[in-house]
Amino acid sequence: MFRLVLRRLAWSIPLLFVASLVSFVFVAFLPGDAASALGGANATAEQLAAIRQELGLNRPLWDQYWQWLSSALHGDLGSSLLSHQSVTSLLNQRLEPSLSLIAGAVLLAGSVGIALGVRAALRGRLGKVVDAGSIVGLAVPDFWLGLVLILVFAVHLSILPPTGYSPLVDGPGAWMQSLVLPWITLAVPATAIIAKQTRDAVASALDRPFVRTLRAAGVSERSIVYRHALKNAAIPILTVVGLMFVGALSGTVVVESVFAIPGLGSTAVQATSSNDLPLIQGTVVYFTLIVVVINIFVDVAYGYFNPKVRLA
Asked: Do 301 and 230 form a contact (C-beta atoms < 8 A)?
C-alpha cells in the first residue's frame, strides 16, 4: 500500500507539469490579455505596449512559461497581475470555501446515493425510480437548480441565505446555513449516479454464491446486505464517488458563481476573464493537487476493502 501511494505521488509530478503547460498555452490563445484589463477600454496602443513590457507579456511564450515554472518549483506561484497579491496567499483564502462546498456535497451525495441504491437493490420497483432519477439528475443544469433553490428557500420562504459564505470560524451554524443550498445544487447529479451504481453493484453482489451460503447458514438479511454484500460492492461504489468528487471541482465554477461564494471556482472565472495568467496557473496547480489527494484517498480505501490492492 505504501508503495502504491508513493507511485501515485510520483505520477503527480508529470501530471502537474502537463496541466500547467496545457493551461499556459490555452490562455495564450484567449482574446485579449492582462494589459487590456489593466489599461481599460480607453488605453492607447503605446500605453498597452508599456504595460505589456512591464508585466513581461511581450516575451516569447516559452520564456514566460520557463520563468513561471522556475519560480513554481521553488514554491513561488507569483503575484496576481491585477491585484498584485501573492497568488499563494490569495488562493489559500479561497481554499476553505471550495473544500467545504465539495466535501459537503460529496458527503451528502454519497450518503443519500448509497442509501437509495441499497434500497433499490432490495426492491425492484425502486430500482426503476433510481434509473429515472439518474437521468433527470444529470439533465438538470446546476445553475438552473441553484436559482430555483434560491427562489424557493431564500426569496419565498426566507429560511436560508441566498448568497455568500460564512467561514467556519464564525460558527458552524452560520457556516452550514450558507452552504446548504450550494450543497444540494452540487449533490443532485452526483446522488443520482451514485445511487444507480450502488444499486447495480449491490444487486450483483447479492447474486453471488457466498450470499446463498450465508442465507443457508441462517445469517440475517440485514447482516448479509450491510456487512457482506455492500462490502463486496464497495470498489465500484468508491470508484464512482471518487469520480464525483473530481467532477465536483468543475461544478464549483458554476455553483460558486451562482451563490457568490469566494472559492477557487469563482477565482478561476475571474482570472480567466481578465487573463490574469499567474492566478490562472495557481488555480490549475491547486485543482490538480486536490485531484491527486482524492485519488490517493480512493486508493487507500481500495486497500481497506480489497486486500489484493495492498500488495500492489
From this structure: no
3-state secondary structure of 86: strand
Q: Could you count the other beta carbons within 10 Å of the beta carbon of residue 124? A: 9
Q: What is the pLDDT of residues 241-264, one digit of tens each?
A: 888 888 888 888 889 989 999 999
Place of cell 455492500: 230
Domain boundary assignment for the chain: 89-273
This prediction has a pTM of: 0.81
Integer angstrom CA distances of residue 220 from 202, 212, 300, 311: 16, 12, 30, 33
101 DSSP β-pair partners: none
Q: Which residues sit opposite 86 in a β-bridge?
A: 79
Q: How many CB atoms lie within 10 A of CB 39?
A: 18
- CATH ID of 89-273, from 2.30.30.60, 1.20.140.10, 1.10.645.10, 1.10.3720.10: 1.10.3720.10
